[in-house]
Design brief:
Low-confidence stretches: 1-14
Distance between the termini: 38 Å
Number of strands: 0
Number of helices: 13
Helix content: over 70%
Strand content: under 5%
Largest sheet: none
Length: 410
């Protein structure tokens, strides 16, 4: 039996150089996906309590804008960066960020989340300045690391991801600056633009992985390839984003409905070309296809919102934020968590339920407010979201913090 000498000083310092040995800091997807899952549950739970009247909001930033910021720049942003920094290592063969650097990057992201809740009398907007600084540092660090990897490997066909990440960084800073200046309506326009940037990222990534995953998952002899359509989607997306941004900030009289209608047609064509009846039997496939179909339908509804008062722009946009971004994120996080830790690409039944819960949350939030009432629909959607991502955490948290099952590094 070991005798503990209580007179000996207990170790009080963590040897940070040993962090590089922790599985959590092996690759960016591990801490970033874990952080995203935790934020998805916490931020949406808090938002539900605010909507239901169980929590009060005292910060200088309106609760609606905090919700928009955290779900887009906080949640979706950290998933995007985690995916890109992990995928870039596969694309280029150049080692991605890990160890202490990854730990520090994660701490900066966490500090930005917590800074919202700092309140000091006489310095009401200090929290917004802190969030702005921390978010900028986090984005720039991730972008520099990603760009360095791609430049080292001369992977020019992936430079587009640096452009997209830089645009998100710029919009994040603009959004927070407008909030500080009390330009709330303009800030909301910036958030909506950032959602469209995220759809561009989804469109590019989906064009690369969905046909490939479908062919591989269904053991097809070859995958569907649509290079001309893929390029047209990218160029049309940039045009639609620029047109929408100018209409929101400069020329409110500009009609953008037809731009979104054209973009919806392009995404719909991809949906049809990628479809295969066997998809419905594989949760890790139907979830990706459902997410992409939601993008197509969401863009159609956004286009119609410019021509009919019955369809609200914000409700249509939430079919994309919840149905496309939310479902695509949870599906990709499960797949990457399995694939990059040496596990089989087979999800348990309750993960299929998680995919379904987020899909239903999108339908409730975007299509049912007119029937259930807006507040009830929002609250029900939030609860479904929390339930779905709680299942994700239950399944993937142990995977993300433990070593690969095949003993390899990563």
């Amino acid at each position: 039996m070991k005798v503990i000498n209580l007179t000996e000083p207990m170790p009080t310092k963590i040897k940070f150089y040993q962090l590089s040995q922790w599985p959590l800091w092996a690759l960016a997807f591990r801490p970033f996906f874990l952080a995203a899952g935790a934020l998805a549950v916490f931020a949406m739970s808090y938002w539900f309590l605010i909507l239901a009247g169980y929590a009060q909001w005292h910060l200088t930033m309106p609760a609606t804008l905090w919700h928009a910021h955290e779900m887009l720049f906080g949640f979706a942003g950290v998933v995007a960066m985690g995916f890109l920094l992990t995928a870039a290592q596969t694309w280029t063969g150049v080692a991605s960020v890990s160890g202490i650097k990854l730990c520090l990057l994660s701490m900066v992201w966490l500090a930005a989340r917590l800074s919202f809740f700092i309140e000091i009398a006489g310095f009401e907007q200090l929290n917004l300045y802190l969030v702005s600084a921390l978010q900028l540092v986090w984005w720039l660090a991730g972008i520099i690391i990603l760009a360095d990897m791609l430049i080292q490997a001369k992977s020019s066909h992936n430079y587009l991801f640096v452009v997209i990440a830089s645009l998100l960084c710029a919009l994040n800073v603009i959004f927070l600056s407008l909030v500080v200046l009390n330009k709330m309506s303009l800030a909301l326009g910036v958030v909506d633009t950032a959602v469209l940037i995220m759809t561009l990222l989804v469109g590019v990534v989906a064009g690369r992985v969905v046909p490939f995953f479908t062919a591989r998952g269904l053991n097809l002899s070859e995958q569907v390839r649509t290079p001309k359509l893929d390029n047209l989607v990218v160029f049309s997306s940039f045009f639609a984003i620029a047109w929408f941004f100018m209409s929101q900030l400069f020329f409110s009289a500009m009609s953008t409905g037809w731009v979104f209608a054209w973009l919806a047609c392009l995404h719909s064509a991809r949906c049809v070309l990628w479809w295969h009846k066997g998809i419905l039997k594989v949760p890790l496939l139907w979830s990706l296809h459902v997410a992409y179909w939601a993008l197509s339908v969401g863009l159609i509804l956004i286009a119609l919102s410019y021509f009919s008062p019955i369809i609200l722009f914000k409700d249509a946009l939430h079919l994309i934020t919840v149905g496309t971004i939310g479902v695509m994120i949870i599906a990709m996080m499960v797949r990457v968590s399995h694939g990059h830790t040496g596990r089989a690409l087979q999800a348990p039944a309750y993960i299929s339920l998680a995919f379904l819960l987020i899909t239903i949350a999108a339908i409730v939030r975007s299509l049912l407010p007119a029937y259930l009432g807006h507040h009830l629909a929002w609250q029900l959607s939030a609860l479904l979201w929390v339930a779905g991502f709680s299942l994700f955490l239950f399944h993937c948290a142990p995977i993300l913090v433990n070593r690969r099952v095949d003993g390899r590094r990563g």
